[in-house]
Amino acid sequence: MLCPTDAARVLRTLTRMNPSAKPSLTQDPAEWLGDAHPLVAQLGTADGLASLHALAGSLTVKPISSLAALREFLQAYHEKILLPHELPAIQTAFTHASRNEVRELIAFDQKLASEPMLRNFANASQRIGHDQLQKLRPLRDERMVQRYLVAVENGQAHGWHTLVYGMTLVLYSLPLRQGLLGYAHQTTRGFIHAAARGLQLKEADCRDLFDELCERIILRPDAVTMTPV
Prior knowledge:
mainly alpha; Urease accessory protein UreF; 10 helices; about 230 residues
């Protein structure tokens, strides 16, 4: 399986060769996000660092200065953002895209803007979502994509990365469960690897933390939950 960086490189090469072709995906649909989460993608910038500190503050956790603090941050992220907001948003977008319900998708997009827990990385989320939508622009026959893209460009929708991701699962006929798990795993892995550089974490510590967090995620037909700590 290609790493996210290699997958993005292949995508750019394919697009240059045939701009009208549907961008290629590997078996892991979450690789479509590249760096997995808007904040991970922005960590090397001042904007990204400010967003991460703001997100940590909104989650009422300590600054990420140790493995224990990273664990606390990721547990709070899972419980307050990933499970109650991001994964349901992907599922909602998947449902609307499956039914070609672009008006309902736009209405849901607007509703997300009023969610306080998403405000601290709204700009980063929309930047990633816009980038992915541009990659889908050549798909002229996909009316859902084109109408949502026009709505974003006209300011009628924000283009949240989670909604674009859910729509992408439908475009590639990928199972929702696989997409949700892929997103949860890659976002968690992305945060861990981004923090590991500064904290000088060992590979075993990163792997154990990833397994500890992701093994608690349970996907049910009617809800996404976590096992108790």
